[in-house]
Amino acid sequence: MDAFSSSFVSTFPTQKTLLVSLPKPPSSLTITNVRVEEKPSSSSSSSTTSTTPRSPTTRTRTTSSTSPPSLSSKTTTTRPPQPQPAQPNLPALIFNAVDQVINNFIDPPLRPSVNPKHVLSHNFAPVPDELPPTDCEIIYGSLPSCLDGAYIRNGPNPQFLPRGPYHLFDGDGMLHAIRISAGKATLCSRYVSTYKYLVERKAGHPLFPNVFSGFNGLTASAARGALTAARVFAGQYNPINGIGLANTNLAYFANRLYALGESDLPYQLRFTPNGDIQTIGRDDFNGNLSMSMTAHPKIDPGTGETFAFRYGPIPPFLTYFRFNAKGEKQPDVPIFSMNRPSFLHDFAITKKYAIFVDIQIGMNPMEMIGGGSPVGSDASKVPRLGLIPRYAKDESEMRWFEVPGFNIMHAINAWDEEDAVVMVAPNILSIEHTMERMELVHALVEKVRIDLKTGIVSRQPLSAGNLDFAVINPAYTAKKNKYVYAAVGEPMPKIAGVVKLDVSRGGGECTVGRRMFGEGCYGGEPFFVGKENGEEEDDGYVVSYVHNERSGESRFIVMDAKSPELEIVAAVKLPRRVPYGFHGLFVSERDIQNIML
Length: 597
Known about the structure:
With 597 residues, this protein is mostly beta strands. Helix content is 11%, strand content 31%. It has 7 helices and 33 strands. The chain has helices spanning 2-5, 90-106, 116-119, 195-203, 218-233, 365-369, 589-596, and strands at residues 131-135, 137-141, 149-156, 173-181, 184-191, 249-253, 256-260, 267-271, 277-282, 298-299, 306-311, 318-323, 333-335, 348-349, 353-358, 361-363, 375-377, 384-389, 399-402, 413-417, 420-428, 443-451, 457-461, 467-471, 483-489, 495-502, 511-516, 521-523, 527-530, 540-548, 553-560, 568-573, 584-588. Strands 2, 28, 29, 30, 31 and 32 form a 6-stranded antiparallel β-sheet that branches. Strands 1-5-4-3-33 form a 5-stranded antiparallel β-sheet. Strand 14 and strand 15 (353-358) form a beta hairpin.
């Protein structure tokens, strides 16, 4: 029972609860099985992507308990009929046959990182359809009033089962939103209605190539490139309308909510009065934003401004830009001193600067010649930190600092000090495994200080743990903060718990709080929600979705950010499984009302 006592269930006080272990699926389980999933009986609505408001589902009153029920309980329901796809014409039949030849003979998914049977196993498997707003059961504690609003988590959920190579980053974006009001909660799961999603839904089969897994080797790249050109020439889709998935993150700025993916423009979203979430459309900000935008823009809570960038395979490899508090995009600042394409997933801002990290991942033609991905690591490259004034009109004041061995995928925060800039970020020690073997990745959170007078860069590890997907109190963005809440990878990309770090400590292990979810239970990126009128930085709650792989049950949990154990103060049983995903956002009720206007 000692091992059991550390499980997710046992984090709630009261009586002991027995977990029922379900048999493990056989290793030969085919990927088609991920589509066989039950739909909760609380909703009779069929899946739809219409932009017209959906009728609210029946709400059932639920009561809180001090003793959560067994996670192994399950309700048998019937899956509603799916919409009928359009009948394929002759060109479509020919193109699909060519696609099958490429997937089966020219470029079959042999590597684990692009094998759908491996990538979409366990709770990485997609849910088969959307979920309209459905009542949730609060099984422990009560939901704090500061959580009135919505927590939304973005992530990949392929609309169709992959026919060939598939990478974890390749799925269509799906939003899992838990709407909270007056202590009650509803969950809805909706696809982001991107141009790609809508065109493929109408066709009834995939049309667009997978960006991260579809171009492995010269032969496969040439074959898929020719097929893509043929589909475009035949009018099956127009890439000018967007090729992105909007599956990575969300952002709220200038009273607008966006779903983001760095290969496309933002997609604007809105809430309906019954708690549903809808896609308004792709936003080019009155023609001023072209091509794409990072999935990690930075919003300064003090000024209301938003800072962002885009990167690409042709010069300028990096372009920096910003939006004013009204959401009006300001002119681009191309960065030509970025002299080769680099994988720039995230960055940081201070009150004076924007900070970019030119890491060892980028375009790698030699790997592609050998049959590998065109995106890979380069061990001969020395990573650099780049600083540009926050309101720069050109790159004339851009400064680069070499930082050997410093590779980041995510930045946590940054701030200014006297004659220095400080950034906190997880450094990926095994960068060569980032795209192919994520389970071997170890990310070490470091505090990096750049002396602007001497040019010396010093680094201080803050924890020995494998930590990433870290967040802070959003009110402290771009200024000095004390606390960080980071996800524990065991191994990545599975999240086994959350730790709280005190980055103000002088050295050594800075962990001051920890909550592990328990055996067989994994969550996602934590998110910090501050209390109303909170006086201290950690006055608030840390929230996350958590899934029990033994029972198949998913929950939304609320943890006390001040508690050393990150004590769970509320738990909500979700009406169906929520797959693992990427990044999330909490939107307050006041902001939701602004979005609905």
